[in-house]
Each structure stands twice: as C-alpha cells, then as structure tokens.
Amino acid sequence: MTEQNAGQGQAPQRKISRVEQAAILLMSLGESDAAEVLKHMGPKEVQRVGVAMAQMQDVSKDEVAFVLNQFVDAVGGQTGLGVGNDDYIRAMLTQALGDDKAASLIDRILVGGNTTGLDTLKWMEPRAVGDIIRYEHPQIQAIVISYLDPDQSAEILATLDPKVRLDVVMRVASLETIQPQALQELNSILEKQFSGGSAGQASRIGGVKRAADIMNFMDRSIEGSLLDSIKDMDPDLATTIEDLMFVFDNLKDVDDRGIQALLREVSSEVLVVALKGADDAVKDKIFANMSKRAAELLQDDLEAKGPVKVSEVEAAQKDIITVARRMAEAGEISLGGAGEEMM
Fold first, then answer.
1. φ and ψ at 229, to 5 degrees?
2. Whole-Å CA distances, 286 to 259, 303, 324, 334
3. 238 near 231, Cβ under 8 Å?
4. pLDDT tens digits for 69-124?
5. What are phi and psi of 82, to 5 degrees?
6. Is residue 70 part of a domain?
7. Whole domain around residue 215: which residue ranges?
8. Inside any domain, residue 289
9. Least enclosed by CB within 10 Å: which of 55, 167, 311, 334?
C-alpha cells in the first residue's frame, strides 16, 4: 500500500483508516510500549494492525500529528516510520506474544517474506477457502483444515457438504504427522495461485485434539450433528473428542482464580446473555467469584433481562469460551478437566 503525503496542513489530505491510525500510533510508541498494548488485543486485531504497519510507507508529519494529536510535540518532525519495519514488527510481536505464537503470525503479516501457500489461505474468507478445497482429495482437505486456525477451520467446514465434513474431521483426528515433502508439494500447488515464499517446515499437524479444537468453534447444531455421526462410525473416537472439547458448562471445573481472571476480560452484557442459558452450577461458580454487590447486580440484570434467542445465548457463550481458551494458551488460566491441553 502506497500512502500519499498529506502535505503541510494541519489535517491530512487523505482519509486515514482506523487500522492505519492504530498502526501509526503503535509504531510511534516504541517496541516495549507497543508490545504492552498488543497484549490486550486479539489475534485477528494484531494481524490487521500488523499488516498495516508492514505496508506503511512515507508517513508524513501531518498524518502523525493527526493521529497523536496532543503528543505531536514529543513525536517531532521526523517520524522514522517506514524504516526497518520488518525488524521492528518481528521484535515487537515476539515481545508481546512469545517466540512460538509470534513466528506464525509474523509469517502471515510479512507477506512476500516467509509466507507459504497455506499461510495465504489464512487471509481468505472461509467460504472462499471452502470453494478452493471443495473438489480436492479429502486427505488434502484434512491437511488444510488442520493447518489453519481452529475458528477459521470451523467456518470452512460449515460450508462443506455434511458427508464431506464428517470425512474430513475423521481424517483430521487420525492425522498426526505429514512428510515435509508432501507439505511442500501442497504449498507449491497453492503458490501457483497465490504469491508466496518458501515452504515452511511443518510436520506435526492434526490429531484428535485439533479436531476437538475445531469443533469447539462450530455452531451448536453442526457440532451436535457431526459428533453424532462420529459416534456412529467410531464411538471411542467420539468420546475422546468430547473429553477434549471445552464447552461453556466446563467453566464450573475452572479454579476460582481462573474464573476471576476470566471475568475481568468479559463484558457484563455478554456475561448476562451467556448465563441466560447456563446451568445452575455454572451460575453459582460465577456468583461465588464476584463481590457480593457485583453478584447481586448480575442477578438483578439476569432477572430483568427478557427472553433471549438461543442463537444469541450460544454466540455469547462462544465468545466467553474463546476468551478462556486464549487465556489458557497464554498460560494465564488453567481450564482443567475437559479441554485442558497437556503441554
């Protein structure tokens, strides 16, 4: 993306998007402060802002002044933006997310560097990816589904025929390793359609845990139907997947400290809707980890809340589960029981 200089006026001549504004601000803060900000953002948000930073060129003083406003004096006339962006982004994301999480994200952000054909799919809409793999061999479909993020994989599977969906999930569950040469060949096929770099050295993907992670992000109706189909074909596998899945009712098994940390990350509006369809055990767990006053207010809100659609309750519960899993992956809480991944 090529930016147009805004000139010397107070306001920039071009419209700066919100994502670009966030990118300019973060790049003006410095690595340490920017990393602290990124810790409070979700993966998708980090991706969008990271891409904006990587593509940013020729940022003018007026544009920085527009974004920073009262801090323009501290920034000064020379912004230094657009110089050594790659090194800056790598250092900042590594500090914010750790080596392992930052590595794959950096590859996705710095397109044209180490991005593989498979990584390119992570930028696409789920339905578009579904169209690309729809007529591929089921084993190829399983590899792609295993490689992508669970939430995106769940949306892609929802676009496929139910029979194909079942076949792919069964293959994902049984897929443990793939030869580097096979993965490289798949990347080469995809890179004929999308520009990308060298193939990554990924060999361990898939497995029952991956299948469970993907199913965690599916709509309840699709998840239930798919699990029933798996039970018909392989009851033991279905039981194992169920044991590894983390659903909203499993919150009752999370320790008190974990619940308290989770509540700090969830808005009261989402919590009220989610609890409308929750078991009493989960409600009691939540109430027990709030101050008496906060618990009373939450109970009042629940009683005052009118009827809520099942789809809205499920969406709110999914939001909370997503936050819980993100915090667990970051080592901030332990989910315990179902869904807990052994490190």
1. -65, -40
2. 7, 16, 14, 16
3. yes
4. 533 433 333 344 444 556 666 676 677 666 655 665 565 555 444 446 677 787 77
5. 90, 0
6. yes
7. 119-244
8. yes
9. 311
